[in-house]
Amino acid sequence: MSKIEPQAATILPGATIGMVGGGQLGRMFAIAATQMGYHVVVFTGSADDPAAQVTPRVVTGDLLDRQVVDKFAKQCDVITLEFENIPAQTIQWCSQFTPTYPSPDILATAQDRLIEKQTLQDAGLAVTPFAAVDSAAAVTAFAEQHGWPVIVKTVRSGYDGKGQHRLQNPANAEQVAWDQDGDWIAEQCIAFDREVSVIVARSSHGEIRCFPPLENRHRNHILDVSSCPATLSPEQSEEAISVATRVAERLDLVGVLCVEFFVVDGERLLINEIAPRPHNSGHLTIEACYTSQFQQHVRAVCGLPLGCTDLRVAAAAMVNLLGDVWPATGAAPPWDRALGIDNASLHLYGKTDAKPARKMGHLTATASDLAAAIKNAQQAAAHLH
Predict the structure, then answer these.
(1) Cβ proximity of 164 and 221 under 8 Å
(2) Of 248, 209, 211, which Cα lies nearest the Cα of 109?
(3) Is the CB of residue 50 less than 8 Å from the CB of residue 26?
(4) Interacting residues of 71 by C-beta distance below 8 A, sequence separation 6+
(5) Please, what sign has the CA dihedral across residues 248, 251, 252, 254?
(6) Which of 11, 8, 22, 136 is nearest to 81 (CA)?
(7) How many CB atoms lie within 10 A of CB 241?
(8) The pTM is what?
(9) Residue 163 CB coordination number (10 Å)
(10) Full strand arrangement of the beta sheet holding 164-167
């Protein structure tokens, strides 16, 4: 049952939205909110962070410094965040001043992979088989039931492949630093056909809308290409949207959330993980949909009617741009060559330190069919190398 009150306040343009976190997600949110007439104040560690570059109001400091948190929160009519690993204590302090979304309860769920999996499983949703583990013996016992290889991940803080290992056998399990990195979760290694995601928004008034499913391809555990529409049957798309809606309702979400799925045996959908925020796979919605995921996030936390999530183009694809694209000489990549591709759009995040595997920006291409959109996006990215 939803905890949302239908009388929740609507926060109109002209008000001030607080964004906790200064990365690229905060940057794109701030741009969308400013276009809609809101003021944005960013709370981050440095005035040079990506989100801090696009708004004149920035509070810098430690997210666990109570005085700095209070200074930030007092300026805001509503507060949201760009990443689920923001300290829950920070969000609790913010919520003492003004509505803050997502709630500390959602953060507690999303920050702990065991709690997340168990919560979804308890809600009757299909997730990848999992178990808490703390030793090589525990992993071997899990593998005896579910088979090798086994994926083990730190319960907290890992992302983009960080904090996880693919273990092929008991000898591999012996090599993990079990006592150094905190708690661990073991997951069955799923032989999936492809990965898809659904971005769902739920407003402070309880309205829910989902974007069309997106199809995702990874390279070295980092998202490489996302495309839409996904190659799912109408029945699979309907199921994915239904599951994402149930997740949003179960968590009492206010804001935007991504549900990632594995497609198994051509038809079965298993939840891999969730992220209660705009998601890398949804960046293409800026060009592809009537409402972007970032504008939808603004609408949701401010209690505005949610926007239309339909595609306004036949197809779109996005390619992540990592630090590897930048020449070792420090020169700029040849952006003009990438933008010579029809319907290619460039988004750079304002990061100056181009490190391998660091997300520095993305390219999106739209086209009259899916194959052309993917080809154009990849060709635009290839021109940068």
Answers:
(1) yes
(2) 248
(3) yes
(4) 59
(5) negative
(6) 22
(7) 20
(8) 0.94
(9) 17
(10) 130-133, 184-188, 150-154, 164-167
Q: Which of 255, 298, 283 is nearest to 29 (CA)?
A: 298
Bridge partners of 321, per DSSP, are 361
Cα Rg of the chain, angstroms: 21
362: β partners:
320, 347
pLDDT tens digits for 235-281?
A: 999 999 999 999 999 999 999 999 999 999 988 999 999 999 999 99
Q: Helix (H, G, I), strand (E, B), or coil: what is residue 352? A: coil
9-23 confidence digits (pLDDT tens): 899 999 999 999 999
269: tokens are 């959908």
Distance CA 97, CA 75 (A): 9
Amino acid identity, position 181: D
CB 150 within 8 A of CB 143: yes
Among left, alpha and beta (phi > 0; psi -120 to 50; other), residue 88 is alpha
- Tokens representing residue 33 in the block: 């909110």
Domains defined along the chain, listed by start: 16-110 (3.40.50.20), 129-188 (3.30.1490.20), 194-382 (3.30.470.20)
